[in-house]
Amino acid sequence: MTKRALITGITGQDGSYLAELLLSKGYEVHGLVRRSSSFNRGRIDPISEADPEAGKRLHLHYGDMTDGVSLVNLVRTIEPHEVYNLAAQSHVKVSFEMPEYTASADAIGTVRLLEAIRSANLECRFYQASTSEMFGATPPPQGESTAFYPRSPYGAAKLYAHWVTVNYREAYDMFAVSGILFNHESPRRGETFVTRKITMAVARIAAGLQDELVLGNLDAVRDWGYAKEYVEGMWRMLQHDAPETFVLGTGVGTSVREFCQTSFEHVGLDWQKYVTHDDRYERPTEVDALIADPSKSRDVLGWEAKTHATDLARLMVDADVEALVTER
Ligand code: NAP
Ligand code: F7E
């Protein structure tokens, strides 16, 4: 039997890696895309170009997490065996500027999708893209039983989505999994997240196209892993024999400053000559340190992060240098 998966957020970083993974496993993959005035499929178009056979099993549908009817219709039409809810307004700083929209897409959007599945009476496994931002002010290491203390409208919205996922698991016996993922990056990372902002700037500075990089808080510590490895963890969570909550991370903390230093050093530059500060990139409330305790995923799922921050910074710089060469 061919398994059908529905991915919300398929045009994003994780959605594109997950679509590739599921197609490589023989799945029929359906993706929810939202309408925009110009095409926004740069991360998923290469999938069909690289493998036209797999591309025939990839289907895109218009919808939106803020439009419940579109979710109901989609779930009923596709009858998926697995749903991966990756769609979100995922930028923490932006969530302070758009708190209500962030809550609608990230929190209420999740319950809209869960209700769409429940009301369709489907035997369907559900993955919720939860986040280490839910731990917020609670000091590391953070694992499945660590107390939550979100520090942004994004973190608070995702915490609702996490708990409603747990509630649907308990109330309706749904196979609903919450994957609490620490920061994961890649050459496909959105350009306004700090790692990608740094690696793109390094490539441009090395090429003589830019002369400074303006950042906010350099002291923040994050547990940065490689997105391509994390989507394998999501899939394993849905193949496990019981629906549970799992943390994915490397277990290693790195500051923004250290990530900068590694990235600039990789092209032979001294970061201190180029990086300046502007308050505009600071947040009203910051999350100082996120470092995972990923032992449950290692012991139960056999999942372990292989790429840590230093290698990640280097691979992202290499990809951005290469992209500039191709562009020129
Ligand atoms: P991303 O690159 O920002 O992708 C977000 C996706 O959600 C995009 O496909 C976006 O579509 C879609 N989307 C946004 N609002 C939507 C709406 N109202 N209706 C339908 N689709 C909408 O995020 P990511 O890094 O891949 O992360 C995937 C998920 O994991 C997100 O839920 C994020 O919050 C969560 N997460 C991420 C990390 C991380 O470090 N990357 C860690 C923990 C959890 P457009 O392309 O049209 O914008
Ligand atoms: O910030 C600091 C900033 O925006 C990381 C999302 O995927 O991971 C991500 O959220 C740190 C913060 O990621 C700049 O203050 C300094 O302390 O790359 P970021 P994030 O906020 O950790 C979690 C797990 C998610 O779930 C989210 O969806 O870097 N920082 N200077 C800066 N951050 C940005 N963006 N830009 C700067 O100039």
Short précis:
This protein has helices at 13-24, 45-50, 52-55, 68-78, 92-97, 99-119, 153-172, 194-206, 227-239, 256-266, 295-301, 309-327; strands at residues 4-8, 28-33, 58-62, 82-85, 125-131, 175-181, 184-185, 213-215, 221-222, 225-226, 245-248, 254-255, 275-277.
Tell me what you see in this structure.
There is one protein chain. This protein has 328 residues and is α/β, with parallel strands linked by helices. It folds into 2 domains: 4-185 and 225-248, NAD(P)-binding Rossmann-like Domain (Rossmann fold, 3-Layer(aba) Sandwich); 194-222 and 252-290 and 307-327, UDP-galactose 4-epimerase, domain 1, CATH 3.90.25. It is built from 12 helices and 13 strands. It has helices at 13-24, 45-50, 52-55, 68-78, 92-97, 99-119, 153-172, 194-206, 227-239, 256-266, 295-301, 309-327; strands at residues 4-8, 28-33, 58-62, 82-85, 125-131, 175-181, 184-185, 213-215, 221-222, 225-226, 245-248, 254-255, 275-277. The strands form 4 sheets. It has a 7-stranded parallel β-sheet, with helices on both faces. It has a two-stranded parallel ribbon with strand order 7-10. Strand 5 (125-131), helix 7 and strand 6 (175-181) form a beta-alpha-beta unit. The chain is globular. The site of NADP nicotinamide-adenine-dinucleotide phosphate has 26 residues, from helix 1 and strand 5. It holds the Pfam family GDP_Man_Dehyd. This is GDP-mannose 4,6-dehydratase. It comes from Aeromicrobium panaciterrae. It catalyses: GDP-alpha-D-mannose = GDP-4-dehydro-alpha-D-rhamnose + H2O. Residues 6-316 form the NAD(P)-binding domain.
